[in-house]
Design a protein that fits this description.
about 270 residues, alpha/beta, Rossmann fold, five-stranded mixed beta barrel, 9 strands, binds hypoxanthine
């Protein structure tokens, strides 16, 4: 069923797009400006794409952008689907199935996250080295379609080490300080309590957020290579003032964004 839906969606997109993508970027917080780095060939609003989840927020339809960065064929997701919005995991991760079927082999993801590592500061960029999945529903639960991937995917290196090395080298050359760490993904939409931030740090998390993990699981299941980065927009473990607002998160993400955009566009050009 899902296999047929993917084929239908891919047939539609292929009929609209001249150059098929090899790279996909999910424009989470901190990468929105990358739309300026892409030479746009086509834009497809989600509302026009068969089988794509539809945005529940009026006037906030997302879109797929197709084009090139340097000479690399890229697709971008402007607008992602969060589990807390009410989408089920198949909807959240349907775009990754479509990416793979279009020919994408590398997926790049960004997000905003709360920092728990004591060395982190607001505005830091953290490359994701590993994750802990605390979502209440797994995107691969249910009957497995072997055409999409194996029943029990290996998760020993979801974030490709060669890409991590390359991204570190690019950041170093550009004089951009970056951190590296473990991202904990959970459903939200509440930010964490003080006790939860402490607990998430104790179990091995450096940063926490409400996206990315389901997307990466399905990317790995389908055989794509992944690079991901967080922008640290707040610090959950600080003892003093501990309130967090969505506005603060957006402001911190926007400030750090140009640095992450530079790293990602250089990374795409270099692979
Ligand atoms: N927790 C969860 N999600 C987030 C946070 C956080 O502290 N900051 C930005 N997204």
């Amino acid at each position: 069923m899902i296999f047929e839906k993917i084929q239908e969606t891919v047939a539609f997109i292929s009929s609209k797009v001249t150059t098929l993508p090899k790279y996909a970027v999910i424009l989470g917080s901190g990468l929105g400006g990358l739309t300026k780095a892409i030479q746009v060939e086509h834009e497809l609003p989600y509302s026009e794409i068969p089988n794509f989840p539809q945005s529940t927020v009026e006037g906030h339809d997302g879109k797929l952008i197709f084009g090139t960065i340097g000479d690399k064929p890229v697709m971008m997701m402007a607008g992602r689907f969060h589990y807390y919005e009410g989408y089920n995991m198949q909807e959240v991760t349907f775009p990754m199935r479509v990416m793979k079927a279009l020919g994408v082999d590398t997926m790049i993801v960004s997000n905003a996250a709360g920092g728990m590592n004591k060395d982190f500061r607001i505005g830091d960029i953290m490359f994701i080295r590993d994750h802990i999945n605390l979502f209440p529903e797994h995107p691969l639960r249910g009957k497995n379609d072997e055409r999409l991937g194996v029943r029990f995917p290996d998760m020993s290196e979801p974030y490709n080490l060669a890409l991590l090395d390359k991204a570190h080298a690019i950041a170093r050359d550009a004089g951009i300080d970056v951190k590296e760490g473990v991202y904990v993904g959970l459903q939200g939409p509440t930010f964490e309590t003080r006790a939860e931030y402490k607990w998430l740090h104790v179990i091995g998390g450096d940063a926490v957020g409400m996206s990315t993990v389901p997307e990466v699981i399905v990317a790995i299941h389908s055989g794509m290579t992944v690079f991901a980065a967080s922008i640290i927009t707040d610090l959950g473990i600080r003892e003093e003032q501990n309130t967090i607002t969505h506005e603060e998160v957006l402001a911190a993400a926007n400030e750090a964004a140009p640095k992450l955009e530079k790293i990602v566009s250089e990374l795409i050009k270099s692979i």
